[in-house]
Amino acid sequence: AKHVREAAANTNLPADVAKKVKAAHNTVDALKNLKPEQKAAAHRKLNEVARTDAKAIDTVVAQAKELNANQAPGNNERAKQKIETAQKAHAQRIANAQAEVNRLKNVSKNTKAEYNEKISRAATDEIPALVKEVKALDAAKQPAIAKKEIAAAQKAHAEQIKESQALVNKLENLSKEAKDEYNSRIAKAATNEVEAI
């Protein structure tokens, strides 16, 4: 079959082109990773370009060599490594996102669990949007929590004032006017000033 290809390729060609086509056929035959149908296609293309555009012989050989290299067993290993690297990066991104969700203070454990589950099933490019979404929920709950904290602090402050005024009122050596003055100052004082009075 090889001789038929070469004979067909060499018919009516200038000697230098015929020699170049023969070398090209031998190069294609030597490519171990090409399938038989890929080699046959390359041989047909070589015969065709030899008659129409002898300069394209090198291009056909280069394409066959590239195809051969892409099908090399080592490329499969490189592809596996790329996949493994991408999988590790995705797993790390999931872990980072879940840690970020778990640090949020204003959302419930159920909400965190729900978003952590969504994140674990999400594509890499979907993860930032999910984190942003749960952070928005966290931020929305912050004013309500702040109001509760303020109310608790105000209540504690009022209790501290009440206790301090009760202590002043128990002092027997102070006049009523002095007690009233201290109680007035205590009522107006900031939390950290009450004990100093």
TrEMBL record:
Name residues in a coiled coil.
80-114, 154-181
Coiled coil among the record's keywords?
A: yes
Q: According to the lineage, what is the superkingdom?
A: Bacteria
Q: Does the keyword Coiled coil apply?
A: yes
| Protein keywords | Coiled coil
**Protein's UniProt name:** GA module
This protein's species is: Staphylococcus nepalensis
Source taxonomy: Bacteria, Bacillati, Bacillota, Bacilli, Bacillales
